[in-house]
Amino acid sequence: MIKLNNITKNVILTPFNILYKINPSLDLKILFRLKLGYKLDLKNPKTYNEKLQWIKLYDKNPLMPICCDKYAVRSYIESKGYKRILNNLIWSGFNPEEIPFDKLPKKFVIKVTHGSTFNIICTDKNKLGKNDVIKKCKAWLKAKFLPCYGEWFYGIEKPRVIVEEYLEGDNGLPLFDYKFFCFNGKVKMIYVDTWKDGHHTINAYDSDFNLFKDVELGYPNDYETEVEVPKSLKEMEKIAEDLSKDFFHVRVDFYYTHGKIYFGELTFTKGAGFGKIKPYSFDVKMGSWLHLPIDRKNG
Q1: Helix locations, 111-260, DSSP H
Q2: What are the tens digits of pLDDT across the range 66-84?
Q3: Which pTM was predicted?
Q4: Topology (CATH) of 6-298
Q5: C-beta of residue 125 within 8 angstroms of C-beta of residue 49
């Protein structure tokens, strides 16, 4: 599968970007049909993906722009009393040329704060091309989210570059990314990112870490990798639910290593609500977990 960069996508999707400004719901209905193959029902949404479209159109929670930014969200986490789960922030700034490379440790992670893929993982500073890093970060800082996807909350906070401490798993094991899906303040699903032969794989579990067998969330399953059940699973669940109380729905990501929980990020509309969830019945099941004001109206 060929992955297009944001500039190329913007060119291809220019008609949809224009349509979104004129008629956002029509734009999302067309994209939804093209991407998922069924009609988007905004008056009576049933599936998870449909309800994410409703959130993009009608939920204007002022906390969302803050909490989707990887730097600004730190203040939200602190306000909730969870400063202890924040990864160590080594540096932050708006100009990549000011990154203090000579003072950085051997290993670190560089991120641009308004995108999910704007990351540089450095395991050996001596092998890092500084000019390449600066060039990448400058390009990423200019990147805009596709207007036609309707994720209005990205990029409102001024994007910046941050450098964080590099996290490693215990005893050389993979550092799993535990993603807690919270619906109306309750964890209903956890999925774990794994990598199989260089390919992204995902396993989905219920809140007690029982595997949802034969459920795919946009990527193949990985039944061979032994995924660690964190000893602090219930504490992670409690924190996730606490952080999710201000929202209809949010995915709360954590890392767990050396007996400690680390916050990852908050995500409000996974895959912009265009994720290929298999089987379709599980998309409906996930939708039943999410109660929106429109559900009360329809009921």
Answers
A1: 130-142, 233-244
A2: 999 999 999 999 999 999 9
A3: 0.93
A4: D-amino Acid Aminotransferase; Chain A, domain 1 (3.30.470)
A5: no
